[in-house]
Design brief:
- The protein is of the alpha/beta class.
- It contains 16 helices and 23 strands.
- The chain has helices at 7-14, 56-61, 90-104, 118-129, 147-153, 174-181, 202-209, 231-240, 289-304, 309-316, 349-361, 384-389, 392-397, 411-417, 429-436, 457-466; strands at residues 5-6, 17-19, 25-26, 28-30, 40-43, 66-70, 84-87, 108-113, 135-137, 161-165, 185-188, 221-225, 246-250, 257-264, 269-275, 278-284, 327-333, 336-343, 370-375, 402-406, 422-426, 445-449, 469-471.
- The strands form four sheets. Strands 9-10-8-11-12-13-14-15-16 form a nine-stranded mixed β-sheet, with helices on both faces.
- Helix 3 packs across helix 5 and helix 4 crosses helix 10.
- The protein is globular and about 70 Å long.
- The relative contact order is 0.09.
Length: 477
Amino acid sequence: MSLLWTSRDMIDAMDGRPLGAMPAGVTGISIDSRTVRDGEVFFAIKGDRFDGHDFASVAVANGASLLVVSESKLPALGRVTAPMIVVNDVLAALEDLGRAARDRSEAKIIAITGSVGKTSSKEMLRRALEPSGEVHASAASFNNHWGVPLTLARMPQSAAFGVFEIGMNHPGEIRPLVKMVRPHVAVITTIAAAHLGNFKNLGEIAAAKAEIMEGLAPDGRLLLNRDNEKYAWLKKRASELGLKQVQSFGENPKADYRLLNCKLHPDCSTITARIGGDDVAVKIGAPGRHLVQNALAVLGAVKLVGADLAKAVHALAGISAEKGRGARHRLRADGGSFVLIDESYNANPVSMRAALELLRDTPVGLSGRRIAVLGDMLEMGSFSERVHRELAGPVREAKVDLVCLAGPEMQALKAELGSDIETICRDDADGLAEYLKTSLRDGDVVMIKSSLGIGFGRIVKALLDKYPALTDSSTQD
């Protein structure tokens, strides 16, 4: 395997001090001692709960050929015999290496932020760009203060395209990250009530997301959702920052990348869109109206970086929904089968509505039911009771037959639903899992959705363990 970094280049980029016999270089970068591979460098980052220095020997045992460690922690590493690069601050060193990766790269760089749709748009863009050249993209949702520099530092010099997801929970978090990434194209998928408890209103969320504009490369291009209520404000903010190349996507007749028509199907969507003056027919391999909007942004970004649009359109037919973000499983039960929709990764009011629409649009069997398994949406602050109560309308519109709830905030939804729809409540995810394991029948469609911290992924696992798969229809979103 070719080297990602030579040791000398790493030492120079991080202003580090070599200790021991340096290897020629490393083939990869890890911050997790459990998953580090042979020939990789392990950065001993100190996190909120764990200090990587405590796991340095584990990293070496698992194959790390080089360690990056803090000067202050060196005395405690006396028994670790692997070569090291010693720095003042390990996370800062990773950031420096990320900047060096950006400096040496000739790739076209795209950065994506937004209240919802970041990860699915990133994965769609990765797939759409692959026919046009080597693509480097964030793993999973590596979009925070350590995920972004790690993704940058892992970018090979040979990459033709780099796709970066940038997230935030509070104001000021995007700004330093995007200044590392320095994208040629920045995409804001949408502005919505996510992390609302950390902001006074939607305007403050828009201002935080707009920080992505501040790191654009010279002559960089901004791509905005023209259908979003904060479009005009974002366009004005771009003008204040002197950005001259601002384009948009959406159904709005003035959108540069415009949806002309759309047909939603249980397992995919088909659309016609006007992309840069060309009308293109697109099949999106995973279902959901929210993915249609994301696809417009993706095709716009493809056009802006000069990749092959026709190949990108063809590639979108092959996308699928990933674990926790719409992955589908058909499982055997009651002499037949039921469909499990795994939306357990995260939840906010917008994504909750999108998941309920997916449930609505999925056909049930002859005696089947639509079952919504819903847990609390976290980080809603003083807005929490209201936004949970307001889910009653989307639940009714989705023609849900049975609602299964857990979490204290979901009591507001229970009260709002009243006796309209059969409702089951349990204290936590494990309680709902036990109920569902004995209650599902042929023809049911079960959609599981909550914020990650509520642990509804355990419900998905329990059902997958209990019921055998009829077909492996797990997908990637």
